[in-house]
Each structure stands twice: as C-alpha cells, then as structure tokens.
Amino acid sequence: MDHRPFEGWLLNNPSLTADEKRQLDAHLKVCSSCIALAEVNLALKSVKLAAPAGGFTDRFKVRLEVRKKTLRRRNFWGFLLLAGCVLAALTLIFWPFLMGISSSPVELLVSWFGALLSFWSTLEAMALAGFLLFRIVPGFIPVYIWAIFLLAGCGWGLVWVFSFIKITKISQGVKP
Amino acid sequence: MTDEMTWIVQAKNGNDEGFTNLVETYQKPVYNLCYRMLGETEAAEDAAQETFLKAYQNLARYDVERSFATWLLSIAAHHCIDRLRRKKFSSFSIDEDEEGQTELPDRSAPDPEDEAVKKQTRERLQDCLQSLDPTDRAAVVMRYWQDCSEIEIARALKLTVPAVKSRLHRARRALADSWEEKEKRMHLRHERKPYGSPAF
C-alpha cells in the first residue's frame, strides 16, 4: 500500500486542510501501518512523566554524604601516599648530607657534590650505551621488521587517539 | 535573579541546601528520562541519583548562560546510554534485567476501565521504546516528555540538528512498527482465547 503523503503528514505534523484531514481519515481506516504511527503520536503526547518514589531528595542527601565520606577517605590516603613518596625522594637526595650530619660543612658539600657527580656520570653512561645500541642494532634488524614496528606504532597511536576522543565525549560534566 | 539561578549560585559556593532545592525541582524530569531509557524503576532511581551526584561534582563546569535543565538531562542521557552499553556487554541475562514491574490498574480511579486502557498504552509505549537505539530513545524522550527543542537535544546529545531530526523521524517510524507488531500479536491472542489453545 502506498503511504504517501499520509506517512509524511503523520511524521511531520503539518497543519492540514479539511480536505487533507478527510483523506487522512479515510486512509487510516484501511492502513494498519499509518494507524500505528497515529497511535504512537497520540501515546507520545498523552503519556505523563514518570515520578520517583517519595523521599527522593532525602535519599540523595544520604548518598551525597556517603560519596563525600568516600572522597575524603580517598583524598586522605592519596595525600599520605604522596607525602611518603616525597619523603622517600628527599631522603634519597639528601642521603649524603644525612649520613654526614656530624661532619664539617666542607666535607658535607664535597660528599654531596660527589653524589651528584656520580648520579650524573651514571646518566651519561646510560645515554652513551643507548646511543651505541641505537647505532648498532638497526643494522641487525631487517627492513620489514622496522615496517611492522612502524605500522604497529601507528596503529597503537590511533587506538590511543580514538580512545581519548571517546572518553572525552562521554565525560560527566557534559556542557549543554 | 530567578530562584533557580540563586540555588545554582548557592550550590556553586558550596551550599548543599541550594543544590537540594535543585534536586527537588528536577527530580521528576531526570527520573522520567532515566525510567524511559532503562525501563526499570530501580535502575532509573539509581541512574537519577547518580546524575545528580555527577551534576554536583561538575557544577563548576556548568555554563550559567545555558539551560540548567538541558545540562542535567544531558548528563542523565549520557549516563543511561553508558549504562545500556555496559549492560549490553555484561554477562547478565537480558531477560532477567528487562523484567519490568507490573502495575495494576488503579481501582479507585473515577473510571477504572479508562485507567486500565491508559495503563496499557503506557506499558506498550514503554515496551516499544526499549526496542530503539539508546541515543534515539534519549532524543524521543527529550522531545516528547521534556519538550526540548531540536537544538537543545542536539546540544545535549552532542549531535547536529539534522541528525536529531533524522533520528526522531526514524525512531517514530520504528516505534510505529513495533506498536503495529504488538497490536497484531494482541489480536492473535484474543482470537485464540475462546478455545484456549491454538491446536483447536
């Protein structure tokens, strides 16, 4: 059965003339598909808002309090962990100073500079080793392996970009 | 300054009472959206509560130039869409989760028969809604229950206005198909009823 133009009228709700209304009524008597559309239109306009059970706001207050408590606890443990990490890092940096707390200031400075220099030379040695590997290793690896690595890297990067877009799209505080 | 704006400013300044007033005002539209999206009262209550919590936590990001109701509905819609996606991939039985509550007609209503028909329409529409894609469902609910404009729906669901129009169009056609199918099934059941079994 041809539903035109009746389906369009029902979907777009234009203002119909008396003659068009008559035509539509006549069509609705014989077309179950358009009757369904008209009934859905009517149902969508007549079904009322569903309301929550009484005491919704009170239940929200309780939930908010629980959430705040959880957040406070999480913040406390987070702060404690951060403070521990900072303390450990400081201890590591100032270890020579702490070890020689009873020595003279000159000895202290010397030992501190010594520690810094040894840290710096370790970094330099690691960088040199990395640079050498970077120059030697490519010669042992065939070109097609490099191509695979490159493609895998690109694919991985794309996955990251799409995931990031997806995550930011469904963020909590969606701006209207 | 309107009451709503006063409450928003109060809530932004850390006054929980201001936010509670906003919850009191918007609980019904938010719950309705969640209920129409999820089809279960318990899940709808939980989703509505979570929506308000998210709004509370992200209130600093709310742009006061825009409608607060649309912002809230946007959070609710995205929350429900996420929930439906998670549910789709979870191991729970769909039959178990889709089991909605069965309402009885209100016998104390002035016209119980009319009330029963209304109830049947409500339940049938709710069933048909569940057959839609979650984003289409959110668009339909915002358009017909919340009276949102196509621009507001587009902003809330992060779609373009033509996409919203096309989704609404498609959703209503799909609803009508589902409605017609249910009608046919109901007729078949009524035809079989006098004999009790299709074998006769």
Q: Can you put this structure into words, describing what you see?
A:
The complex is a heterodimer of chains A (176) and B (200). Chain A is mainly α. Chain A has four domains: 6-46, no CATH class; 56-93; 94-140; 141-176. Chain A contains seven helices and no strands. Chain A has helices spanning 6-12, 18-30, 32-46, 56-93, 95-99, 105-140, 143-169. The longest helix of chain A has 38 residues, at 56-93. Chain A is elongated. Residues 171-176 of chain A have low confidence and may be disordered. With 200 residues, chain B is mainly alpha-helical. Chain B has one domain (3-88, 112-192): Rna Polymerase Sigma Factor, Chain: A, CATH 1.10.1740.10. Chain B contains nine helices and no strands. In chain B, helix 4 (68-89) packs across helix 8 (150-157) and helix 6 (112-130) crosses helix 9. Chain B is globular. Chain B starts with a helix and ends in an 8-residue tail after the last helix. The model of chain B is unreliable at 91-105 (pLDDT under 50). Classes of the chains: A mainly alpha (176), B mainly alpha (200). At the A-B interface, helix 3 and helix 4 of A face helix 2, helix 3, helix 4, helix 6 and helix 8 of B.
